[in-house]
């Protein structure tokens, strides 16, 4: 059951812009109220076509994206967004099947919230994902083989070729690169990349599969290794 009054938590500037993509006006209004009371700027779209126009015009810092939308579905919007940018996306869905959640993550979503939800739960996820989307902010660049990571800029290059990673993918790769050759299990990687999420450990497999696909495009897929029954490691 949605709560009807916004909370009082506030954040300091800068004020991120959150795009709320939701076709149920009551839910959208409540989410916008909570976001604004927490110091965020908001834009709203009621269908997938309007959402894509606003993404390109307003350049939001985060998108709250419902799965079931008129005109263009939420997953199609997500695919279009990911083809153009790494803007953080949190999916809002009434679907409870794990396959739907994994499909959204496979397409590049950063997190998901299942309806019915409490607005404060969504606010906590928004703050967590925005926090994860910021560069780590400290530490020298890391180099593992042909791979170079700059934590100050959250940038990754393979032999000078830039990789476009989501915030979650970058955090996973940065954590692995911090201890080359060490095997990390799913629980360790989940805590490193998605500490406030309620996602299951198998979600890590989806993010790493996407990461491996991007490394493969740069001829570096063999660096990310799966150790059967144990976890994952990054090797030079």
Structure description:
The protein is an alpha/beta fold and 236 residues long. It contains 8 helices and 11 strands. A hairpin with a 2-residue loop joins strand 6 and strand 7. Helix 1 crosses helix 5 and helix 2 runs parallel beside helix 3. The radius of gyration is 18 Å and the shape is globular. The N and C termini lie far apart (50 Å).
What can be said about this structure in brief?
Helix content is 40%, strand content 19%.
Cα-atom radius of gyration: 18 Å
Q: What is the CATH C level class of the largest domain, in words?
A: Alpha Beta
Assigned CATH superfamily of the largest domain: Response regulator
SSE string, helices as H and strands as E: EHEHEHEHEHEEEEHHHEE
CATH topology of the largest domain: Rossmann fold
Tally the helices: what do you get? 8
Poorly predicted runs: 1-13
Number of DSSP strands? 11
Strand order of the largest sheet: 2-1-3-4-5
- Supply the CATH architecture of the largest domain: 3-Layer(aba) Sandwich
